[in-house]
C-alpha cells in the first residue's frame, strides 16, 4: 500500500497525448495512494509551442482516458504575475542577474555540459552586461545561491533514499527566459509548493532537473517534497518515446478502435509501470 500523498501530473501541451503521458498520469495517480490527492496541471508557459487547440485536445484525451484531477486543473499561462513575484524576491536578494547573450553566443563560448545535457553558461554577463540594449533573460547566480544555502541540496528519491544533488554542475541557469519572461524550473517549483505537492512524480528524463529545483525550493523556503521518477517507454533503439511517434498517440489508438481501458493497459504502459512501482501496485489501469 502506498501512503496517501499529493501528487501531480504536469503535461506540457506541445503535442498530442501519447503513451508516455499515460504512464506519467497513471503513475502519479497510483502514487497518490488511497485517500491521497491527484492533481493535473497544464504547463503551458511556452505559448508559441503550447496552443489552445493542443491544450483542449490534451484535456479531452485525458478525460476519455478516465484520468481526472481531484481539484480544478491549474493552467500556468493564467498565472504569470505569480511567477514574477518570485523573480522579484530573488532579484531583490541579489541572486539573479540579467543576461543579454543569445543562444548562439552561448553555444560558441560554452565548454561544459550540465547533468541534464544543457550547456553550462560560460558567465559572460555575470559581472555586468556585455550586450546591453537587447531584452534580457534572468539567470540565477548559482555560486551565490549555494553559498546562501551553505551546501548543495539533495533529495529523497522513493525506493532509493537520500540522493546527492548536483546543482553546482549546472552553473547559472535561466529563471526568466528572454521570450516568455519565466522558465520551467521557476513555474514548476512555485506550483508544486502552492498546490501542496508532497510527492513529485515524473519520468526519469527529468531526474537531473531535481538538483536545480531543490535549490529554488530552499531559497524560497518552500517545503521539500519527495521525488519518484518513473521508467520511460523506450523505442526499439532505446530512445525515449517522442511525441512525434504517431503510432503511440492516444488519438490514433482511439480512432483505431481502442477502448480507454485497453490504452491504460497497453503493453508498453504496463511494462514501464511495472518497472517503476512497488510489486503488486499496478494491477491494470
Ligand atoms: N511539464 C513538464 C513536461 O511535460 C513536466 C514537469 C514535471 O513533471 O516536473 O515535460
Automatic annotation (TrEMBL):
Any single GO CC term annotated in Swiss-Prot or TrEMBL for this entry: cytosol
Q: Which Pfam families match?
A: tRNA-synt_1c (PF00749)
Keywords recorded for this protein, A-Z: Aminoacyl-tRNA synthetase, ATP-binding, Ligase, Metal-binding, Nucleotide-binding, Protein biosynthesis, Zinc
Any one GO molecular-function label of the UniProt entry: glutamate-tRNA ligase activity
The answer to whether UniProt assigns keyword Nucleus to this entry is no
Give all residue intervals belonging to the Glutamyl/glutaminyl-tRNA synthetase class Ib catalytic domain.
6-250
Q: Which gene encodes it?
A: gltX2_1
Q: Domain of life, per the record?
A: Bacteria
Q: State any GO BP term from the record.
A: glutamyl-tRNA aminoacylation
Q: Which InterPro entries match?
A: aa-tRNA-synth_I_CS, Glu/Gln-tRNA-synth, Glu/Gln-tRNA-synth_Ib_cat-dom, GluQ/Sye, Rossmann-like_a/b/a_fold
Q: According to its UniProt record, which protein family does this protein belong to?
A: Belongs to the class-I aminoacyl-tRNA synthetase family.
Report the protein name in the record.
Answer: Glutamyl-tRNA synthetase
